[in-house]
Amino acid sequence: MADHLLEVRDLSVEFHTAAGTVKAVQNVNWYLDRGETLAILGESGSGKSVSASAVMNLIDMPPGKITSGAILLNGKDMLKMSAEERRAINGAKIAMIFQDPLAHLNPVFTVGWQIAEMMTTHGRPRDKAAARARDLLHRVGLPEPDLAFGKYPHQFSGGQRQRLMIAMALACKPDILIADEPTTALDVTVQAQVLALLEELQQETGMGLLLITHDLGVVAEIADRVVVMNGGQIVETGNASEVYHNPQHPYTKKLIAAAPGSGEMPEESDRRGEPLLRATDLHKYYSAFHALKGVDLTIMPGETVAVVGESGSGKSTLARAILRLDDPSSGQIHYRGKDLMTLGPRELFGLRRDLQMVFQDPTQSLNPRMTVFQLISEAWAIHPEILPRKQWRDRVAELLTKVGLKPEMAVRYPHQFSGGQRQRIAIARALAMEPKLIVCDEAVSALDVSIQAQVIELLAGLRREMGLSYLFIAHDLPVVRDFADRVIVMKSGEIVEEGPVRQIFEAPRKDYTRALLAASLDPDPEIQAARRTARMELEMAVSA
Amino acid sequence: MSATNTQTSDAAKPKGLVAQWFALLWADKFAFFAALFLLIAVLCAIFGPLLFETLATKQNLRGRNAPPFDLSRGWAFILGADALGRPLLARIVVAARNTLLVAGAAVVASAVIGTTLGLIAGYSRKRAAQWIMRLGDVIMSFPSLLLAVIVLYMLEPSIANIVLVLAITRIPIYLRTARAEVLEVRERMFVQAAKVMGASDMRIIFRHILPVILPTLVTIATLDFAFVMLAESALSFLGIGIQAPEITWGLMVSQGRPYLTNAWWLSFWPGLAIILTTLSLNLLSNWMRIALDPTQRWRLEMGGRKNG
Amino acid sequence: MSKFIGKRALASAVSLIGLVILVFFLSRLTGDPTDLYLPLDASVEAREQFREMHGFNDPLIVQFGRYVGDLVQGDFGESIRQARPAMQVVLEAFTWTLALAVITMTFVTIAAIVVGSLAAFRAGGIFDRLATFFSLIGASAPDFWIAIVAIVIFSVNLQWLPTSGTGSAAHWVLPVAVLFIRPFGLIVQVVRGSMINVLSSAYVKTARAKGVRTLPIIFVHGLRNAMLPVITVIGDQAAAILNGAVVVETIFGFPGIGKLMIDSILLRDFSVVLAAIMISALAIFLMNLLIDIAYALLDPRIRY
Predict the structure, then answer these.
(1) Do A194 and A297 sit in the same domain of this protein?
(2) Domain containing residue A402: CATH number
């Protein structure tokens, strides 16, 4: 049997923690050949990054410990090599890029220096390294590549920083590139560009690409083969298309079923009568920056309106303006006919009950020093007229049951829950106010796909049961497809397109909406291939 | 990770709060003995003057500069006697009160005032916030010890004045820390969530912001206690702090200075008391930095084998 | 940048003016120094003449007006004790203290960075434990006590080093060594804490993935980032020596500004006290400016 380019055999890694030993991965096997792309797919805590860290010798020992297995590079076991041999491989033979390029680039050195350092570290003379760094900046498609050399990481955008990371990783022409969630923090259109660049560079150099991701769409877009991980073990492995169409393991099936954007779209809602909330001509300036440029918005009772846009589109500013967390610079907001902008503090305080918010990151939005009981009952401490104190305990139990948690969890603190459970607590807290409208600001973006589906299901159930309306802010179109009645697409502080969900998805009128739809990744490799063709054509059309 | 956390705290719950903290303290042996030493020092400060006042002030001219480790005169003379034949051990125990009282009062006063001002400066966007910061800058732009020297020379070096001077010079520490923390915490999502619920400013400050920044401030105050004690000791040593017949450890070091060449113990023991107390405070503050931070606490919960 | 400096200078100037006024009036309220300078048996006329000469008979507000008038012309008054311009006396003393501060802080900075960085690299190891423990003791030690213990050991018993004065290099050893201890203890801990944070940062992970060697990771990638919080502490400690080496200067008879200040207050030499305050304030201002410049040089994200 010929040696694979890189092969992980029977690898097990443990970490020692406060609660005892955690088996991060157990008996993991995979291999990567020249010119192919292998994806390791898994949700948070699945151990999908651990074997890559072991390959790069990035596991701190202690607390980590490799208990069994071998990592073969061209047939030679890296775990038996000296630290110096491992160091010489890193960067030169195997390079790695990471999820958050801003954090992973050193903030106090110029990017040119950091790219050149990759080469000087592996023995290239300084001047040659600098020259090649300049070439690389051209190759990865940065605007003004000659000026970029002397700039610092904070002077670039997220997508550009990932291009810089790629330039750095490829400086020594490695045989293998490991990409750990390389596009997770990026906007969909930028994600598509970065993935395309990776593919192009792979074809140019013939390197093996190991991609670690939680996103079925990314797998569909770029991977040849896929390894599915759950709870530190490989549950399924095979050809990307086969695994999608014919999953064997229940976990894989569940994961594919949870992928957003596959269910029925809601029918068009009835928009006659008095709207619940109407915003007209909202403007917001942050000193010179014009964040909202005349936005109009109407929400009917019981309706779910989604606002979709990439970073900087002003969608979160809109949400904050409607709740008067950040007062808009001009414009009107009417709630059931009352003008929110002219209300005094006391009337506004009364209206707070009706308008509630669920934030993106429940870890941040729940006070870490309060118990679940305190968190939920705070609503009634602030608005005592809702509920007399002696009924608090029962009502908290009731609300916890309603969001799918257990009443006895009321005594716990937020850090004792998982991400999905925390978001349920945040929803229970919003419900305690008995609101009419809940603003969800990226409320499911930080959650794993399967959890995301559960939380959306919960929100939909509450809508049916309690007649709630939602303003649902998201950066991702598929997420809102099964859930929203209407969709508003925003870009640079303006509404690009608005309409019923079916019209937006099936007959978008504006190029930007079409570009967004084309850039969002479908979990089905065949559909994704078709989309890619469509996207290329669109790009041609736009550039022509 | 969340699942594992659940287990540990469930297991810890039945033990009760006191036992839980004791376990955290026991996990860091240095901190444990530091806390024990400080407890003894505080007991000395509370009960020492009641029990040993007469012993500590009784002159005995035949026992002048009696050497330490000689038990023939009784246990009180184990550390030797001073230039007037008074037992050093008893004097150190009695002096604990003034030493700890001055430092403690100054720390409490500066922490309360500084934190209050810092909360206002951090939370309010009004003009007052600007003025509070200027005030902090003004105090910071002068050397604290020198300022103390000047003011204490001009005013009377009474205990109240010393506390006042030391407290004023330490206010900026709390002011700046509290403000910086408030500025950061104020933008956190859970504060925004409270605002959406209609929480008042007072509620946000006292229920949401203060509990989050308090551990940092307590840690700093512990460290600062050591600093203030050193400053008071230096003032007393220079002769412009507490005046005889009152005694503090710093003053005792100073009183022993003329006899350095033939009776080193006069200055040595009170100096050792100072160094042990400040060292204990430093160790305890280091421990608090970990123990009061929920994301760091596991280091201690893991037990003694991984602390450091 | 110049706008930023201007704002800072203004804030410092305002606080300085406030303090000068405060000290001026407080100091005169405590009585005039005539009795301190004239012999006990000096005649009433001689006393009156001394008061007249130094202007202590005029109302306070007139004295203050005269002081400010002289100040505007660059005259900081006369030292009563030394009978020469106060500023001259202060600047002489300040030069000594400056030298002391620069020498001490150079040693402290180098030693603390090396020890703190290496301790952080193997956090929890034996070197780290020793470094942490000794730096804690250093940070806890009262300098006056260290000073007199050092004198007993090195000057009295071993007779290796002189007890006081400034004649030779040997005279500098004890003051520098004593002043070294506390800042060293403090800064080692700050370097260690900062370095531990930096070494667990994402960009150090990148550097490891690039195959960068250990020493460049610590001293190139790590140090420049880790220095940011350290710089502030170095500045504070340097300022503390510049202004507050009172204890050490007094014990070692070192003719610096701290000792001068104490002596001048004792002898009610008002002009010298006020001039010393002004120089101190200027030194602190420049020190803070230096820190801000160092910040901007180290971190390209900081712009004023």
Answers:
(1) no
(2) 3.40.50.300
Residue C165 lies in a domain: yes
CA distance A228 to A236: 5
- In the predicted model, residues of chain C with pLDDT beneath 50 are none
Collect all residues of chain A within an 8 Å Cβ-Cβ radius of residue C225: 106-108
Decide: A168 and A120 in contact? Cβ < 8 Å: no
pLDDT at A93: 92
CB contact under 8 A, B188 and A413: no
> Chain B to chain C, count of Cβ pairs less than 8 Å apart?
128
Q: C112-162: per-residue pLDDT in tens?
A: 999 999 998 887 788 888 888 888 888 888 888 888 888 888 877 777 777
pLDDT at B153: 72
pLDDT tens-digit profile of A17-67? 766 788 889 999 999 999 999 999 988 888 888 888 999 988 887 678 888
**Would the CA dihedral through B27, B30, B31, B32 be positive or negative?**
positive
Which residue in C257, C233, C229, C254 sits closest to C243, CA to CA?
Answer: C257
CATH entry 3.40.50.620 includes domain B29-59+69-303:
no
Q: How many residues does chain A have?
A: 544
Structural domain harbouring C113:
86-303
Domain shared by A173 and A230, yes or no: yes
Q: Which of C190, C127, C188, C124 is nearest to B307 (CA)?
A: C124
- Which is more confident, A359 or A343? A359
* CB-CB contact of A446 with A419 (8 Å): yes
Its pTM stands at: 0.80
CA C3 to chain centroid, in Å, comes to 27
Whether the CB-CB separation of A230 and A224 falls below 8 Å is answered with no
Q: Do the domain assignments include residue C79?
A: no
Q: A61: distance to nearest CA of chain C, Å?
A: 12
Judge if A351 and A239 occupy the same domain.
Answer: no
Q: Is residue A514 part of a domain?
A: no
Of C22, C44, C72, the one marking the end of a domain is C72
Distance CA A118, CA C209 (A): 10
Categorize the per-residue pLDDT at B5 as very low, low, confident or very high, splitting at 50, 70 and 90. Answer: very low
A350 and A409 belong to one structural domain: yes
**Shortest CA distance to B151 belongs to which of C26, C259, C16?**
C26
What are the tens digits of pLDDT across the range A418-473?
888 898 999 999 999 889 999 998 888 878 888 888 888 888 888 888 889 999 99
Let me know if residue A218 belongs to a domain: yes
The single residue listed with the structure tokens 């007229």 is: A385
Chain A environment of B196 (Cβ under 8 Å)? 323, 325, 352, 355-357
In a domain? residue A461: yes
The verdict on whether omega for the bond into residue A384 sits within 30 degrees of 0, i.e. cis, is no
How many Å separate Cα A219 from the centre of its chain? 15
How is chain B split into domains, by residue range?
29-59+69-303
Two structure tokens written together for A117: 């350092």
State the count of interchain CB pairs (< 8 A) between A and B: 90
Burial of A321 from C-beta contacts in 10 A (0-12 / 13-18 / 19+): buried
CB A349 within 8 A of CB A343: no
| B254 contact residues in C (CB cutoff 8 A) | 144
User: Which of B2, B198, B294 is facing A352, going by the closest CB pair?
Assistant: B198
Interface check A494 vs B, CB under 8 A: no
Q: How many residues does chain C have?
A: 304
